[in-house]
Amino acid sequence: MALLMPVAIGLLFACGTYLVLQRSILRLIIGLGLMSHGVNLLLFTMGELRKPSVFSEDRISSIPVIEKAPNISQIETMADPLVQALILTAIVISFGVTAFILVVGYRAQRKFGTDDLDVLRRLKG
Question: Which residues span the domain enclosing 42?
Answer without folding.
Answer: 4-52+60-122
